[in-house]
From TrEMBL:
GO molecular function, one term: carbohydrate binding
Family to which the UniProt record says this protein belongs: Belongs to the bacterial solute-binding protein 2 family.
This protein's record includes keyword Transmembrane: yes
Alphabetic keyword roster: Membrane, Signal, Transmembrane, Transmembrane helix
Source organism per UniProt: Virgibacillus phasianinus
Cellular location(s): Cell envelope
Listed name of the protein: LacI family transcriptional regulator
Gene Ontology terms: cellular component: cell envelope
Ranges where the Periplasmic binding protein domain occurs: 26-281
Chief site of localization: other
């Protein structure tokens, strides 16, 4: 779906008369691919006419897509905002056009909360706390300072801001853990690997652990650590968030040490919210998905039941 727009015609026995415009953030990670598949499959299942557009990690493009939905007069708009800020104007246009907006996966910061109707996604701050707690409880070294490299997600995005906040909250109570450097890997494998290579050139064996805001950057860091001549998961502990299948395989091969789940399968909840809105029902302002965490031991069992 990269860069294309997909118009999925509903099946013949259309159950609801509903057109949903969805502006996807991009195609940057395994999480995103699973998220996209979930949304499209859920629209098909419910007989909802989905207009799916991909903003390719560009806010101007995402705004233009949303404006296009307003011009088309869709019933409901949903999107996964690439960053938290800069949405007032386009969401005011949607509100003036009487089109409700659902935030999928990522939140925004706006003065006027009436500019969006509902948020369906995760508690990123808690995800960051869970990652930090594992390090606090599992980094057994004699060193008085445990040195961490943080690989951050897209600058200004809700998951990157939340995961950093939660991680730092726990570190404030554990001063023996310190972030040597925080680098932006933009949630991608390529940038994550590149940033980790730079960090290893600067700090080498002084690095004790890597905290990656998502699996794709963690897998990149794992490759960079191997190419540097060290053993990921052993010489340098690696922890990540999302817990996609790639992370579960890295856990079972002991190159990754811990992964915090961030559930991408939001399609069914999103379609239910859109249908409820169309039928004039009130919907909850926030729906936080329940999530788990995975150690190396738990990975093998989980892999068997995972579709993504
Ligand atoms: C989190 C989501 C993040 C994932 C990344 O809900 O927005 O964006 O953690 C994805 O993998 O790129």
């Amino acid at each position: 779906l990269k860069g294309e727009s997909a118009l999925t015609k509903s099946d013949s026995d259309q159950k609801v008369n509903l057109t949903l415009g969805f502006a996807q953030v991009g195609n940057e990670s395994e999480f995103r691919s699973a998220n996209t598949k979930s949304i499209i499959a859920a629209a098909e299942k419910e007989g909802i006419d989905l207009i799916f557009e991909n903003a390719e990690n560009n806010q101007e493009k995402q705004i233009a897509i949303i404006k296009g939905f307003i011009d088309k007069g869709v019933d409901v708009i949903a999107f996964s905002p690439i960053v938290e800020y800069g949405w007032e104007e386009v969401l005011q246009e949607a509100k003036d056009a009487g089109i409700p907006v659902i935030l999928s996966d990522r939140e925004i910061e706006v003065e006027d909360p009436s500019l969006w109707t509902s948020f369906i996604g995760s508690d990123f701050v808690e995800e960051g706390r869970r990652a930090a707690r594992w390090l606090v409880n599992n980094m057994r070294t004699s060193k008085e300072k445990i040195n961490i490299i943080e690989l951050e997600g897209t600058k200004g995005s809700a998951p990157a801001l939340g995961r950093k906040e939660g991680f730092n909250e726990i570190l404030r109570d554990n001063p023996n853990l310190q972030v040597l450097e925080s680098l932006s890997g933009d949630f991608t494998f390529k940038k994550g690997k590149e940033m980790m290579k730079n960090a290893l050139l600067r700090y080498g064996k002084d690095v004790d652990a890597v905290y990656a805001h998502n699996d794709d950057m963690a897998i990149g860091a794992i490759e960079a650590i191997e190419e540097f001549g060290l053993k990921p998961g052993n010489d340098i502990k690696v922890i990540s968030i999302d817990a996609t299948k790639k992370a579960l395989y890295a856990l079972s091969s002991e190159k990754l040490n811990f992964s915090v789940e961030c559930n991408p399968l939001l399609g069914p909840q999103l379609m239910k919210a859109a249908m409820d809105l169309k039928q004039g029902k009130n919907i909850p302002m926030k729906v936080i998905t329940s999530e788990e965490t995975f150690t190396q031991e738990e990975a093998n069992k989980e892999i068997k039941r995972r579709s993504y």
